[in-house]
Amino acid sequence: MQIEPAFRALADASRLRVMRLVAQMELSVGEIAQVLGQSQPRVSQHVTKLVDAGLVERRKEGNSVFLREAAPCPLGDALARLLAIAEREDAAFAAQSATDRARLAAIRQAREDEADRYFAHHADEWDTLREIHGPEKPSEEALLAVLADQPLGRLLDIGTGTGRITELLAPHAEHIVALDKSLDMLRVARARLQALVPDRVELQQGDFTDLPFPAASFDTVLLHQVLHFAQDPALALREAARVTRPGGRIAVVDLARHELDDLRIRHAHARLGFADAGMAKLLTEAGFAPATPVSVPGRELTVKIWSATRLAHPSPAPTQREVAL
Asked: Rounded to two decimals, what is the model's pTM?
């Protein structure tokens, strides 16, 4: 990053606000325009200047383009600290930042409400709908093979849906907690799993960004076709790491990167799959040692199984920036 273009790009109050926003979460140009209260063409001009200066990155998924803060660098760290100080010292900037946070919270809530409505509406037909994610039987067989080399112990099935995977893994686990945010999904899962031994399987409501369990509670953690619904996959994986014991394992079953934008529109997907390199980075930063991923090709989509081992003493995570948003 060159210092002079960066400072020129930052010489605008709106672009400083954009930097505060993308430091918190990925946003589209339209969402940034909604927060700033400006037209999309005007916001696009701001974003272009920030991208050209190396401060913001664009990420294309299907027909959508998302913006995020560029890879951490000393200037970016310094800017985050400076903006946090400015919010404490400048009353007008603090008031504007508070307004931006409120609008950003509304965007977050709207995204979550849309997903909740989708799951509530489709709970009873979820197993059929999930077939669009890829071949079910081959991916389940591949998952069993990936997990077969050591006991599952206490297993957490995050986003259990109808309980299909809990039912599959129950004979191999000491105890399973099947967790889902949707009460409608848990209703269906409870009916499906009622024949299993009650002290071996329990159902619990919870959100994968704030798991209701103590640290190191599980030997195995599974996210099966759920991470693509996460607005912040890194946060979900950090929470998964927190509840995984050292030496325990995680398995993420999800879609490889694709361009079927219809899944975002019709089925509430927040991510159009994941690339191997990106998933390895997410797992490593969460405190896992990734294994070689397994591919299960389908007609249109490829299912991937990314597994990893929780490190006893993970490398220190990057310093959390002082971001007030």
From this structure: 0.62
